[in-house]
Amino acid sequence: MNFGTGEKVYEKDEGVLLDSELLPAAVKCWFTVQGRGLPLSMKIRNEEGEIQTMAPIFTDTFQKLRYGGVPLWRYQCRVFQEGIEKSFCLYFYPEEGKWRVGK
User: Fold this and answer.
1) How far is CA 72 from CA 14, 33, 58, in A?
2) What superkingdom does the record give (predicted)?
3) Which residue has the higher pLDDT, 79 or 103?
C-alpha cells in the first residue's frame, strides 16, 4: 500500500544543485509586504579568496520549492559585470535564513 500527498517532493530535472555544489553568499534583499524576497545585490568569495560584489541583480524567475519537507526559494538571476551578462541561480533557505549561489 502506498501513501502520497499529491505533491511532487523531488524532481531531478528542476535544476536544484546539491549543497556541496553551492557557494555561500551574502545577499542584500528587499522583502515585500506579501513576503516575497527580491535580491538586490550579493557578495561572494571567489576562488582566490577575494570578496566579489555583484550588483544590481535582475531576477528573471522565482519558485518556491520544497525538498524533503525543507522549503527552498529558487531565483534565476542575471547580473552585468564588466559589460558581460552572467546568469546564475540563487537559493534561499527561509528556515535557516541562508543564501547559496550555484558555482
Assistant:
1) 12, 19, 19
2) Bacteria
3) 79
List Cβ neighbours of 24 (8 Å cut-off, separation of 6 or more): 44, 45, 98, 99, 100
Distances (CA, A) of 42 to 11, 35, 63, 69, 101: 28, 20, 19, 27, 10
Domain extent listing, the chain: 21-102
Instruction: Please choose, from the candidates 31, 21, 20, 77, the residue with its C-alpha nearest in 3D space to the C-alpha of residue 54.
Output: 77
Number of CB atoms found within 10 A of residue 44's CB: 19
Main-chain dihedrals φ then ψ at residue 42, nearest 5 degrees:
-150, 160
Which strand (E) or helix (H) includes residue 80? strand 70-81
pTM value is 0.77
